[in-house]
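Incident log, support desk, overnight shift.

02:14 A customer reports that sequence design results differ from what the structure should imply. Their input is reproduced verbatim below. On-call engineer (initials T.W.) acknowledged and began investigating.
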């Protein structure tokens, strides 16, 4: 079988999680910082390590078949690619921010103002959608210092914690785009067998991340109440314990219901609750 190429970020905020995801999918490869390409030894795939800005176009043009890149970069490069899967990491928000003392209140107040950004394409679309005419000043880095230098009235930049905004005397003003890492493919090749196989593995890794394996002990008299709290993948496993009338219940629960469920289980008489990570969920 001839192999496919996947493009991932060479270094930066998406590199580590992209490599981790592929390794969790059972792929074995060397991850030398110096090499641009790495061959997976147990799956028909080659990995290209690139700057994130180049990934969307490489995938669109078929130089790489698939790629992992932030949605902000995909939108900014205006490429035509197929979205295979949202990956749940690299989450951030493209926001407009203004100086703390600014009197701008709503989007319409940006009319006639200057906004500095490294995302002119996305910002232009956003302003058009909101029917605002503003000057876009495109700068490639350190956008947040531009209002302080008198170069703009506002900025549009990626914000995750807001720390950088704060330390530059800026406050959030409007959300422009919520972004996360996306697995994309060249259009028209999404049904390729290798991609399907990889997608299946990725989905089972993502699903496992949201799942916990729980074991608990309970007196048989309380078993029905406990079982009603535990939907499980199909139905929970119940195993008798050496102690008379006690059983162990094994099941999986969703991470998001976790604390609420654990407290309810304890209240219903569950003891010795053990929670374990799940590596993969195959359905
Ligand atoms: P490259 O050298 O590959 O061009 P870069 O400096 O452009 O890297 P990074 O800062 O590594 O990019 O960010 C890569 C992606 O990570 C962003 O495009 C965005 O999708 C995502 N991301 C998540 N959180 C943040 C954040 N706090 N700031 C910037 N990007 C973030
Ligand atoms: Zn970049």
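02:41 Re-run completed on a clean worker. Output:
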């Amino acid at each position: 079988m001839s192999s496919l190429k996947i493009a991932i970020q060479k270094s930066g905020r998406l590199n580590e999680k992209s490599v981790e995801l592929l390794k969790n999918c059972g792929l074995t490869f060397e991850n030398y910082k110096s090499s641009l390409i790495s061959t997976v030894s147990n799956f028909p795939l080659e990995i290209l390590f690139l700057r994130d800005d180049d990934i969307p176009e490489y995938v669109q043009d078929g130089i790489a078949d698939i790629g992992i890149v932030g949605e902000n970069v995909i939108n900014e490069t205006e490429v035509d690619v197929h979205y295979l899967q949202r990956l749940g990491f690299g989450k951030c928000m493209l926001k407009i921010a203004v100086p703390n003392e600014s009197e701008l209140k709503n989007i319409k107040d940006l009319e006639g103002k200057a906004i500095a950004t490294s995302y002119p394409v996305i910002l232009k679309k956003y302003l058009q959608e909101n029917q605002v005419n503003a000057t876009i000043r495109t700068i490639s880095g350190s956008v947040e210092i531009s209002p302080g230098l008198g170069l703009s009235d506002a900025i549009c930049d990626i914000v995750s914690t807001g720390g950088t905004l704060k330390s530059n005397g800026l406050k959030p003003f409007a959300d422009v785009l919520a972004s996360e890492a996306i697995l994309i493919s060249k259009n028209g090749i999404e049904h390729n067998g290798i991609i399907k196989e990889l997608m299946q593995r990725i989905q089972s890794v993502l699903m496992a991340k949201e799942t916990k394996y729980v074991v608990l002990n309970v007196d048989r008299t309380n078993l029905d109440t406990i079982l009603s709290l535990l939907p499980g993948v199909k139905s929970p496993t119940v195993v008798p314990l050496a102690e008379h009338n006690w059983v162990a219940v094994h099941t999986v629960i969703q991470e998001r219901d976790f604390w609420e469920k654990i407290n309810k289980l304890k209240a219903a008489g569950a003891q010795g609750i053990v929670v374990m990570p799940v590596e993969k969920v195959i359905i």
